[in-house]
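Human: We require from you a standard protein entry with sequence in single-letter code and fold as tokens, and nothing else.

Assistant:
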Amino acid sequence: MSSSVRESPPAHPCSPSDGALHMECHDRYFMIAVALSFTGEDPRFEAVDRVGVHPITKQNEAKCGYCVTVLPLLGHVELRGSYFSCHTDRDDGDFTFSFNLITSRDGKEVVYPLNKTCSPTLPWSPREVTCAINYMEVLLQSESSCSVGMKTDQTAVAPTPGAVTSDWQVTFEREQEQMPAMNLSEARRQGYMFDLTDGLIVFRTSYGQPDSFMTEVNGIPVEKVQATLFSKQGWLVLMVEVVAACSMYSGSYDDGHMLWKTPEVLYSGLSSDRLRAGLNGELVDQSITEKEGYLVKTEDGTVEISIRYDAAGGYRKSFVAGNLYEFYLFHFFLEQVLLDEDDVKTVVRFHRALITPLLHCPIYVQNQTVLEEQLFTVYLGEVPEDVTLTGLQLNGYQCDVLCSNTSTYNVTEVVHANNTRGYTLKVPFSNPFVIKQFFSEDSVLQYRLDINYTLSVEPQNEVYFHMASIVAVFTGVSPPVFEAVCLDSGISFKLDHKPFDYLWDVTIGSELLTSEMADRHGYIMTNDSQTLQLEVPLFTPGYTYADISLKGFVGTFEILVQDGETSAVQTSTVKKCSFTSSELIVCSTDGRMTVVADVSLAIPKEGKPASTTLADKYCGPKDADESRALFMFPLSSCGTIVKIGKKNVTYQNEIFYKNYYNVDRLGSANDTERVIVQCTYPLASLHLLFSRLKFESDAVGTGRIIHTKQATAGLKGPAIKPTVAPETTPATKRPPAKPVAFLPPVHRPGRYFSRFYNLANRMTKGTNSSMKMYAVQV
């Protein structure tokens, strides 16, 4: 190593925490690993000995038996050192390593001292060759040097303890060419390291030196260095032949396995005795290696190592490059024992970093949805341990993964023993994010959930998006259909519930059918998990009436089934029933009043209902029987009186017996019943009346038939007085017919008074009607 020595900055009193620092003694090397999160991006090491502090640089680390590797994707920096590396203190079989770790904090260098003493338990072999990642090292024991290559002209002897390295020279042989000799000091300056102390000879060189050469053995590239050490001591010439040969096969990948090869015999005259392999400097038995996923075999003079890509002991890392990829790194270790003809052992050890090519990360999405649960269940699997789920989009809506345990969606993490994790996502079909489509032609209901997972690769926080689309399909689905039955008092509707009825809205007109709405309109509704029963009494809102006569009428009621999202009508149930009623009043949206009224108490004993009229004596009944009369007339005719309220407009008329002026002469001095008929419309629903002079209401009117008593003695003509919302008790001899009670919607107070007054006069001007105009705001 270079003799560069410098004074180090003051050491930091603390060492890195246990989680950030690992120091390990192996059989033939020492290792330090420090987390980059602690060191920063540019950590450095210094070797410390009795002389001083020596920086470890790229120029001298291999020469001195060190290998410093920064592995940002694995998140740490690693230093490996040979037991015979420079500046290591050797004392009776113990090896003490002292280093400084230099980091940068806030622009200042911070130094942390690191120390470790190792005592290898494995005895040293007569010759050991180490093919490290960045250098070759040969160790010879002097007591067995005669049998491993020390020679004189006739006899080989060991170097004496008194010999000094300055007495030795070295020459290299390169492809049968002998290089000029040089002393060991010159060899060190050229990058070679020789150590001839303590009965050992240690030779070390980095790969690619000028005096090394490449060759092929069984098609495998091999780098070889062949040197001869010699020293003249008196009349003796001591010579030591030092040979280092290492396979330079870089590795290959095939069908999920990483492959590495070396010639079975790298040194001539030797035979292979044993092979053992392992990872991270630890050797294991062959039966265990096969179980753990790597296999050693010898075939045709070649040793081949096969390591399954996910074998135990390897390092795995994810990263993003458009897609999500992964690679596996193995610190592979192979030990080969060779024997010569005298059974003298040579041990060759290979340390190699094998890296797989980029592999697509096998993240997958599994649809675990059970339709009967009405719930999407989606599993995101094989998520590596260095990848986490940080975001989620459901059909374009951003969702918070950290606060996912809600009624609308739920995310659960599942951790597996193979260093992967999974995420289970549950989303109810009723979630507003879920897209629902109903195909009426095929009776198919489809739910779709488009998922965009946001994944983050640690520690560099690279973002990757993984997308999936999940579809749940139900067949034989159709909108609900009611059964309808005619009753004497109205119409009854029944619906047997099916699983997907909740997808549709049931409406009457534009109103959603609810229990509150049914109560407000006078419907009778019961609804449980199995059946919806709705009884609609006659003359409640929602009916339409046709074919009205004295014999009866047809009442029609319609229930609509609409799409819950688009409000498009999917089906309708229309029921028409024939009814009879003693009295009936209908106020149509086109401004007509139809009345069937009992006038038996409003006429004299000898009178007939056919002789009755409205306020205009020329407006008689369309039909009559012994007690009732049928009138059909426009609201703007027959003497109808118009009354304006804050919210409503009321059209009122009265039924008279046409010979009313002869009542006394006919001998009826008793009180006579008055029959008042009226239709009330919401004021705001008549906007077309003011803009186009045309009666057209947005809603049907509310009709009433009022029976009240009034003395008729001296009566000279029609006597309809302006009253406010007349309310009287009907005659006791018969109950009044139920009115058609369509409740008008609530609108703003009347604001059409003056315009309506003028319009009403124009509508009645020029007629022969005796209609009187009242504009009373109540």
Remarks:
- Confidence is low (pLDDT under 50) at residues 144-163, 661-670, 711-778.
- The chain has six domains: 21-118, 123-248, 249-361, 362-475, 483-579, 584-764.
- The chain has seven helices and 57 strands.
- Residues 710 and 763 are 31 Å apart (CA to CA).
